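In this supplementary section we document a worked example of the pipeline. Step one takes a protein sequence of length 171 as its only input; no multiple sequence alignment statistics are reported here. Step two produces a three-dimensional model, which step three serialises into structure tokens for compact storage. The input and output of this example are shown verbatim.
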Amino acid sequence: PNDIPQAAIRAAEAAGCTEVDQPVSSAPSGQHLQAGQDPGYTDTPATSGFHDPSPLPDEPKVYDTQPNEINAVHSLEHGAVFVYYLPEADGGLSQGLVDRLTQSAEGSDATFLAPYPSLTAETALTLTAWNRRQSCPAGDTLTPQAASTIVNGFVTAFECTGNAPESSSPC
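The serialised model returned by step three reads:
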């Protein structure tokens, strides 16, 4: 991976975000599920592990509903970044903030934006890459500008980099 830009680190600290973590100690790639097999994810949202043999399509970049997680994990394995958010109606991010994040996703090669209704107010914005995760709480300190800086920094560090074991399409 690349370094996270200092502006993104400062914005994340000011907004009360977690540091980027590695949710699982081992994240081998190429683990394809059989039809109907439970992936057994232990982290939410999942960042690695067993997944569908097919990644999500390269488009759309922005989802109105949560995409199938077993396909999303395969996309992470290929170098994608997912920006998940708790919708405003569930106590999460304002529509204005989501609109700002939409611009980041649509302007990238392999970053996707999607609601994730099982997030909490403490994890209302959760960024994922292959076995990497960072979460930020909803609230006044997470402004659209701060969120955009945080997301763009995470994307710089992890989108289409050697962090992903099978970096390919859509990279």
